[in-house]
Amino acid sequence: MTENWQFHLWRVARLEKYLGEWVADLTNEAESRADWHIRHNVLAERAWRTRVLAQEFDFEIDTSVPLPVIFAEWKVENKDWESIMQNPPVESVTYQRNGETYTNTIPEIVSHLIDHATYHTGQMNACLRAAGKMPVDTMYITFVRMKGVV
Predict the structure, then answer these.
(1) Burial letters for 65-78: b for 16+ Cβ neighbours within 10 Å, e otherwise?
(2) Which candidate among 28, 37, 64, 127 keeps its CA 20 to 30 Å from the CA of 103?
(3) pLDDT tens profile 25-63
(4) How far apart are the first and last CA of the chain?
(5) Cα separation values, 74 from 6, 8, 52, 131, 134, Å
């Protein structure tokens, strides 16, 4: 596993630890949007995994599932991705998006997943700040300084 993937796993664990303090009480729009960004990240990893494994996938975000369950699912997705990285079932994936055909390698997809999670974590933190809550520090440099300790 790459250091960037280790960072990604650390970020997921850190989000789960710090968001667990307030997830049961989503009382306003900003908090609900923060919740959506977490769910979207899990859904995106699942969507890419199903592309790699040539499986069908439903792209619906189910907001009725409690966030702790979503974090548990995210951990399963991450383990599935670790298996894919260790033993790729294919070299690349060709898929359609908005009428265009694209081909990406497994390392390119994994890099995208990490970058995508970084983007949505930033969006989630902006929502938390708007809700008057403390953003979660998930910066790469913090991961390095803390040597991966959540």
Answers:
(1) eebeebbebbeebb
(2) 37
(3) 556 676 778 888 888 999 999 999 999 999 988 767 777
(4) 18
(5) 14, 11, 17, 24, 22
Q: Name all domains of the chain by residue range, CATH numbers in brackets.
A: 3-146 (1.20.120.450)
Distance, CA of 99 to CA of 122 (rounded, Å): 29
- What Cα–Cα distance (Å) separates residue 6 from each residue in 69, 92, 101? 22, 22, 31
Residues β-bridged to residue 96: 101
pTM of the model: 0.88
d(CA 71, CA 79): 12
Q: C-alpha 68: how far from its chain's center?
A: 14
Pair of tokens at residue 51: 């592309």
Q: How far apart are CA 90 and CA 4, in angstroms?
A: 21
- With tokens 């769910």, the residue in question is 39
Q: Are 46 and 77 in contact (CB under 8 A)?
A: yes
Query: Which tokens in the block code for residue 35?
Result: 């919740």
Amino acid at 46: R
